[in-house]
Amino acid sequence: MAAPSEDTLRRALAERQAAADAQAEAVRALKAAGGASKADVDAAVEALKALKVEAGAAARRLQQALGAGAGGAAREELRQAVVNTLERKLFYIPSFKIYRGVAGLYDYGPPGCRVKANVLSFWRQHFVLEENMLEVDCPCVTPEVVLKASGHVEKFTDLMVKDEKTGTCYRADHLLKDFCKEKLEKDLALPQEKADEFKRVLAILDDLSAEELGAKIKEYSIVAPDTKNPLSDPYPFNLMFQTSIGPTGLSVGYMRPETAQGIFVNFKDLYYYNGQKLPFAAAQIGQAFRNEISPRQGLLRVREFTLAEIEHFVDPEDKSHPKFVDVADLEFLMFPRELQLSGESAKLMKLGEAVSKGTVNNETLGYFIGRVYLFLTCLGIDKGRLRFRQHLPNEMAHYAADCWDAEIESSYGWIECVGIADRSAYDLKAHTEKSGVPLVAHEKFSKPRKVEKLVIVPSKKDLGLAFKGNQKMVLEALEAMSEKEAFEMKAELETKGETNFKVCTLGKDVVITKKMVSISMEKKLEHQRVFTPSVIEPSFGIGRIIYCLFEHSFYTRPSKSEEEQLNVFRFPPLVAPIKCTVFPLVKNQEFDAAAKVIAKALTTAGISHIIDTTAISIGRRYARTDEIGVPFAVTVDSATNVTIRERDSKEQIRVDINEVASVVKQLTEGQSTWADVSAKYPAHVGPQGDQE
Ligand code: AMP
């Protein structure tokens, strides 16, 4: 039977509580009236007690459901266990720890570095190699002009509120989110309408403007969490780290907030390198920097992180993808904007249908969504805790055609780990305009085509005389007219000599006269079509993916004696920091020599491994490597014939010493599964396994 929903439990609690309150009132009335017999009063009190017990049980059921859901104590506990193991085993280290660290900055330690290298190497194989992408590596320090053109200097902001007395800064949307979540999780007496309202606010949080956020903060009387002081209105804070390039301090630069701009500014050269053919993709892996307002989600929200980005350039008139068929049958959780706005949950959908119904804007975008799904699940992300969420209208940049985030559920809730956006032609157009270098593609016609072209020629002199400082805005608005608008204007100018014209950037109408602009259609022979390509951008936050992978891979199991819980990371071999450990069972020359032979063969086969000769029990040594997720352990208990143990099943097989490296290689590279090798080699059920 399906568990009752949170709404049902909330309603049940409200009913039980109301019944108990009514009975309490009845008992009070009975006592106040004075005439009732002791037996009647006792019976009414007993009934009240029973109703209170029922209300208490309903409250516990709701509490349990909330605890098992978002933000529950179980999640907190899991996070603590994972984070403790990660820090103890040096997967990562808070940066500058001996100086008490800096919020939002972390180092990867030895096993963490290996996991990261494995994830990046698989990323290169799965995307760069598969699609023949052109990889580049651009500097982090970026001159201001580039980020002005891209819009980051003006708009790369988050909304911030300040504690009005202490000046401490908070992200406005995070405070509202925390408030609504806390109410939903902790306030058991919350009326159903209020619960619905808070859920709706959470669903549209990313869609709220500064004014709307400010209004909600006021409406709910949200105050500074640390001091309970009042908060300022939300205002934008630019997240880029500013610096200066060179000693004069005159040349402003920024640490790049994304790697994408390095690719856009190189478009012209990359297009030629690719033989002037579209579509093609460029890729870059590198550090990105964002001065987050109050980073507090551990490794998930940091101030410097590794991004892996793809810019796939495509003809805006043809966004089909020849390999879409390869992913069309994939089925996974999708969360289109209609479901979000109506308060529903993500649904399993076939990717092919999502594209054919227009839920996903085009095949190329759909292709990358499918490839991202395969990438994440191959790494070991749990399919049930991965969804693709479409951006809400306001959340999406105005120029974007469609945008989906791969979100992974962790103990912090659903986290955006990969953004997949159809950014249309925005970036290339912006850099073309700012740099004066046309970042365009050409389609050569086999035969020249006769075309009629709209030609709008504004007269700068007359516009200047009429509009002075506003001349540029009027001129741009005239040039941007559609064919229909231009011909309506031409007709009016010819009949009346002047016309009213709305200039959006000025926010008003101006009067245009005949001499200010000439509008005509010209016949031309065209040999090629020149256009600005659209770009589809999958952007991967590598640190976020890795952290979610840590949580999804972590589990505990009792030791043999059942006295303690042992930690295990069930990393697939692809991700595991070390693929294999070699344990001489006891210290003697013969076993040490055999271990060395095996280690040498593993090195030759390119399998990362360590020999552990510590004088502790084999069970302890297994537990130690399970804790860093090593998938296979070779135990040398004979000079000729050894065992290989699989981490999760703890099963062992017996293999000739000369075959060990090739068996482990097949297992780690995916040519054989554990079931395959178990069928081929004899199982080992000996004393050494019993010591775990
Ligand atoms: P965006 O350009 O904001 O869509 O970010 C691209 C990706 O970078 C996101 O999908 C995240 O995975 C990652 N990301 C963004 N901000 C941070 C951060 N502060 N810390 C870690 N990863 C981040």
UniProtKB/TrEMBL annotation:
The keyword Plastid does not apply. GO terms for molecular function: ATP binding; glycine-tRNA ligase activity; transferase activity. Keywords: Aminoacyl-tRNA synthetase, ATP-binding, Cytoplasm, Ligase, Nucleotide-binding, Protein biosynthesis, Transferase. One of its GO terms (biological process) is mitochondrial glycyl-tRNA aminoacylation. GO terms for cellular component: mitochondrion. It is an enzyme of class 6 (ligase). SUPFAM superfamilies: Class II aaRS ABD-related, Class II aaRS and biotin synthetases. It catalyses: tRNA(Gly) + glycine + ATP = glycyl-tRNA(Gly) + AMP + diphosphate. Residues 80-558 form the Aminoacyl-transfer RNA synthetases class-II family profile domain. This is glycine--tRNA ligase.
